[in-house]
Hints:
The protein is α/β, with parallel strands linked by helices. Helices cover 15% and strands 30% of the residues.
Amino acid sequence: MKKNTEKTPKASARDLHAERILILDFGSQYTQLIARRVREQKVYCEIWPCTAADADVRAFRPRGVILSGGPASVYEPEAPLGPPGIFELGVPVLGICYGMQLMAHRLGGSVAKSAGREYGRAHLGISRAAELFKGFAGKGRARETVWMSHGDRIERLPPGDHALLRTLND
């Protein structure tokens, strides 16, 4: 029997925690999936409740924030709004489902009940080219199949924002 004399490779010098992402959970059934996808990109992330305090979020020093979906409507009286200073951190913020509607609502846009509820399979059309979607339209498809569960829609984007994607129900 030959003894293994090879040394174990050293861990990467890259600090895994330096590029941390904070995911604020607004009650989505997909929050763990979001975290898994971030971690598959070898990026550290943590999931916190949407009730996290501003001071705690600042102390965490995220390099980006993801606002999850959830069952609420932003115009309901008791809608969760997350930490008030989240948009003043100077880092990218990605809103998914409710998180996107919350961004529109808090940044000067408007959200309203949709004429038709989206539930299940939907087709998401890329309406404006962006580096983020490189490779999608290049496959000869103008649309991506996604799964939705929405009863609200963004009526008006915040000043300076523009839509990159649309569904047929927008």
